[in-house]
Amino acid sequence: GAMFGVVCCFAFGPGCIAWFIVAELTPVHARGFATTVGLGSNWLANFLVAFAFPHVLTALHAWTFGIFAATTLLLTIFTLTCLPETQGRSVAEISD
Asked: Is 45 left (phi over 0), alpha (psi -120 to 50) or beta?
């Protein structure tokens, strides 16, 4: 149950930010490079989590999912407090 909750919350929240936030917050001339960096960072983070998970699970057992739940909560708070709302705004309004 805990793993399902973390995956769902991450997928609908911070997990998809790299896919759309770059397109909304970067100017057109830098969008290609910014998308490359954003998605590259996302895949690197996914690799590191997948690589570290078995080792962390061996060390912490059931508490492993607490780490993922806590980091998902922190990323959600970061998203809500630090990233601007872009719905209904033009690129010019966002970049100001």
From this structure: alpha
